[in-house]
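Need tokens for this chain, all 67 residues.
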Amino acid sequence: MNTNSKTNVPGIFKPSEGVLINKDNDALKAYKIRRSKEAKFNIIESDMEQIKTDMLEIKELLRGLLK
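Here are the structure tokens for all 67 residues:
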């Protein structure tokens, strides 16, 4: 028989098999949104670092042309 017993944490259940099951779909959705935003931020941060590197390279090339 598969009976679920509640735990002290909302949305967490423990069936007779002894594993913990998280049924809090709102928390999962919020986690996925947060993870997506963090991934987008990391991409933007990486792009900004690449732009900085490219700008330094362009400056060096321009200085070389002026000499």
